[in-house]
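BACKBONE STRUCTURE TOKENS:
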Amino acid sequence: MAKTFVFKFGGASIKDADSIKNLFNILHNRLRNHTIIVVSAMGKTTNALEKILSKKLTDEDYSLNITILKDFHLDICKQLFPSSHPIFSQLENDFLRLQRAINKTVDKQNYDEVYDSIICFGELIASRIVYQFLCTQGLICLWQDAREIIKTNEDFRFALVDWQTTRQNCHNYLMPKLLQFPVVTQGFIAMSNSGKTTTLGREGSDFSAAILASCLQSQSVTIWKDVPGVLNADPKRFAQTIKFDELDYREAAELTYYGASVIHPKTIKPLANHHIPLFVKSFLTPDDPGTKIHEVEQSQKIPCFVVKDDQVLVSFKVTDFTFIDEGHIHQIYAELQKLKLRVNLLQISAISISLVIEKQVFKLEQLIEGLEADFEIRYNEGLQLVTIKNHHPKLIQEVTEKREVLLEQVTRATFQAVMTPLAQ
């Protein structure tokens, strides 16, 4: 089998015309024929599309939001292409299709399905612009709709990959193209076997890159970020950070599990299973080595900090003077699974279960509706979940001082606390 390589570029790396020109400069010296270029939506496009959908749900006027989003992409194209270039008619068609998708009826019951049908336009539009620009610069490549390759079930917004079909598609349809030219495709989006658009979870473009790499047994995956590699903390939140030159698969997976935003949580497993190294590098300083994630014998003990915003602490208290047992836990988790809510922290006492979840449209309301007959339910919104891996008392004190801590857990290696955000 031919050696393949996967490059993934996130939204920050293609946020404007200069960034796309920088992407070309990165690829110019590194592009091989058997390379897959996985592209996210540009800048904050996904957030903008979510806002449009939110306004649709509340019967607010969203026409200005669509105009702003369209102008954002048009302005980038005007800086990259001559006015006669076909990208402008393609962009017009994409936004007409987006408008049709938004016009569909949406409510609590079909929200996730409509969400996927709308959010996918961010990646589709971005990949067309990147593809067309690379071709104008002499880097001849092919465009591939990822939905034709990556197949899933219909668990909308959190679709599970049909690995067997996806692997067959990679070998039968993607590999013949790669043998001729590099291929530009999209991250995050996929398609069910019945033909409906699905997504792989928020920020899932990293996972897309890992799916394609594992199915093709690629030589490596490189994720291009606005940071120099994997750091022990978010540099936007912490003044001093440490970059890891290398990380073991397990350590990287653990950091992503707790919410480290540099890599999507599902990315590591398919790469580790096939011993494919993952490089995290900066698109600002592309010649720097970044971080290599692979099999490392000696684990590191540097403290790592992960902060998750917009967390909701929900407490379920039994009302009939019984103690919490496995039946109560199963009942709550069955409702969480039905609503596709991931638990970020769990604590059980004699008479209550407390858990931390992400804030999502409708979901808290539906969770309460499903369980309020059997539990007394209280919740707090707008919280932060802070995790310290390889903690010590001084670090815990520094993180929690001047904050109201609502719940905390400590193990030998990990400290976690749900608390109010720092006052601005």
The first strand starts at residue 5 and ends at 9. Residues 253 and 268 are 6 Å apart (CA to CA).
